[in-house]
Design brief:
Length: 593
């Protein structure tokens, strides 16, 4: 399907799980959430499961086009330790637990919590409390209809409201089986998903949450019914790809939702075409993000390490077990690539091969139809599929990208600005001088985003105070933001209580060195910035002082010595560029022996 530029990847072991073929229409069918990947119905010749056949709503697809003939399964990869090869520990665990059986296909990957009986029918262990405290009168308020979808923990049905504010309205009901809740962790997952749906429900591109109920056997999550089908269905109905103008419209909606929940401190962790639904069959129907079963709250200074997601869309840093909201942006990059060319950027015959491709290979931007795609469109995708998560665009930055600017997307406050400003106001005068010089070399295209963020913070008398940042954050706050404790960052920005940032200094504070380095014109930007620095900030500095500026020890002295000009004791161009980035130098005692 898609092509990768990399060295040949060796053949996988016979204990690795096949994940389908390389063509997009032959993606594996999703039978349940954490399932191993089965063969596509089209590939196996088996009967096709068509959710619209048992739904009261007509398929949004033309006659003869199957809805999502094959799905990309969401899955939770569980590793006991960071592996050198991402898939091997999974396979080894499966062999041990299954007595050496090879290539399990239809069972979920075991999780640590599933090894212990925690209160099942055998009674061996403390019984789990599966009472959530939700309402008990679901049957009195809703008339349940036929099933429209199925997952590992339950299924989704359509239903009609019998009373209340939405009386007579048709809704979707996600029915989660309590019998499948075999650990405290799985119970907490359900609580968190409900909490997330409730907190994020107000956004235009988030599926609307109505209510939640429970009985002795199930949890019933009542949500908006999206009758237009999945984004994947539309891609397939269009022959596998979208024209640029239509792809832009889709991506603006995806990014708008993502920018919103990222601002709330929520990372989705399973963004893929199957998790976006259209509200109706109309071509201009609104797109909504669904399925927060793998999502989580994340603090502004936190990195997650559990490996979850869908193989084709998982970010490299997820496989390295250290990631944040940037992982969602990688997934959107994969979706963008598929929308524009109809192929996956990374593919493989097995899960292990996919992971290796994600970690090592470069997407193909040379073959058709890429030569016919606009330069700004290609740049957009490349800046999302950057393996260095620090150089990847945020959702708010992506909305300000030149490729999407004609779509007039409404820009949202970007929390990355808060983190950058926090670092700036706590930096040394020498580093602030270096960043001020860099801000004077920012290209006009990049200034568009900074100007928008400055205005969203509502400056008073031409400047931003601590109150500006506090008020702006509270304006967008939901219960999710409180849960992820993002406002805690304001406690680290107290120096702004005594001063204001005008626009020029805000640019110095909010500019990302790594984001600029991802641009093709980085060398010219750095050269121009260094010229400003020579006139306004560069000074004589010793190796010891420079090490202190960067919080480095004596082991770094030989490296830093090369950054200082012997002629006048000031930073060289190389030293300036490196100083902007910062470096990490291991001590000899920390190296593996």
């Amino acid at each position: 399907m898609g092509h990768c530029y990399s060295r040949n990847i060796s053949a996988v072991e016979d204990d690795e799980i096949p994940v389908g073929t390389d063509e997009l229409p032959n993606l594996p069918t999703e039978n349940h959430r954490h399932a191993s990947i089965p063969q596509s119905p089209l590939a196996s010749g088996g009967p096709e499961v068509n959710s619209y056949n048992i739904s009261p709503f007509q398929s949004p697809l033309p006659a003869g086009v199957a809805p999502s003939p094959a799905r990309t399964p969401g899955r939770k990869f569980k590793w006991p330790f960071p592996p050198p090869s991402p898939a091997k520990p999974i396979m080894a665990a499966l062999r041990r637990r299954r007595g050496g059986a090879a290539q399990p296909r239809d069972e979920p990957i075991p999780e640590d919590s599933e090894d212990v009986d925690v209160g099942g029918e055998s009674g061996g262990g403390e019984r789990l409390d599966k009472n959530f405290g939700f309402g008990k009168n679901f049957e009195g308020k809703y008339e349940l209809g036929k099933e429209v979808g199925r997952g590992h923990f339950g299924h989704t049905c359509w239903a009609k409201a019998k009373k209340g504010k939405i009386k007579g309205q048709t809704v979707a009901v996600k029915i989660i089986s309590k019998a499948k809740m075999t650990s405290a962790l799985s119970i907490e997952d359900v609580r968190r998903e409900v909490k997330l749906l409730k907190a994020l429900s107000g956004h235009r591109h988030m599926v609307k949450f109505y209510d939640v109920y429970e009985d002795a056997d199930n949890v019933f999550v009542v949500m908006e019914l999206c009758e237009g089908g999945e984004l994947l269905d539309r891609i397939l109905a269009r022959g596998g790809r979208y024209p640029e103008v239509d792809a832009k419209r889709i991506l603006v909606q995806i990014l708008s939702a993502t920018a919103f929940f990222h601002l709330q401190g929520v990372v989705h962790r399973d963004l893929k075409p199957e998790n976006f639904l259209f509200t109706s069959r109309n071509e201009d129907a609104i797109l909504k993000v669904i399925d927060f079963g793998l999502s989580d709250f994340i603090r502004y200074d936190q990195r997650l390490n559990d490996v979850v997601g869908s193989a084709y869309y998982v970010a490299p840093e997820v496989l390295h077990r250290s990631y944040s909201t940037e992982a969602d942006m990688w997934s959107i990059g994969v979706i963008s690539y598929i929308l524009l060319c109809g192929s996956r950027p990374f593919y493989g015959r097995t899960e292990s091969a996919i992971f290796r491709c994600v970690l090592r290979a470069n997407p193909n931007f040379e073959d058709m139809p890429w030569p016919s795609i606009s330069p700004t469109g290609k740049d957009f995708v490349k800046r999302l599929l950057n393996r260095d998560h620090r150089k990847r665009m945020t959702a708010a930055q992506a909305l300000a990208h030149p490729w999407l600017r004609d779509e007039n997307p409404g820009l949202l406050l970007d929390f990355s600005v808060y983190k950058l400003v926090k670092s700036y106001i706590r930096a040394s005068p020498f580093r602030r001088s270096a960043l001020k010089a860099l801000s004077k070399a920012i290209p006009d295209e990049e200034l568009v985003f900074l100007k928008a963020q400055f205005m969203l913070l509502d400056p008073k008398d031409g400047g931003l105070s601590l109150n500006s940042f506090t008020t702006a954050l509270s304006r967008y706050a939901t219960d999710a933001m409180m849960e992820s404790r993002l406002p805690d960052v304001l406690n680290t920005m107290q120096p702004l209580a005594q001063k204001k940032l005008d626009f020029d200094e805000f640019c110095a504070a909010a500019v990302s060195v790594y984001q600029l380095e991802a641009l093709e014109e980085w060398e010219q930007i750095a050269t121009s910035a260094f010229e400003h620095f020579e006139h306004e900030g560069n000074r004589i500095i010793s190796v010891q002082e420079l090490a202190g500026e960067m919080s480095l020890g004596p082991n770094a002295y030989p490296l830093l010595k090369d950054w200082i000009r012997s002629s006048d004791g000031r930073l060289s161009f190389l030293g300036y560029a490196k100083f902007l980035h910062g470096v990490t130098v291991r001590s000899s005692s920390s190296r593996p022996r």
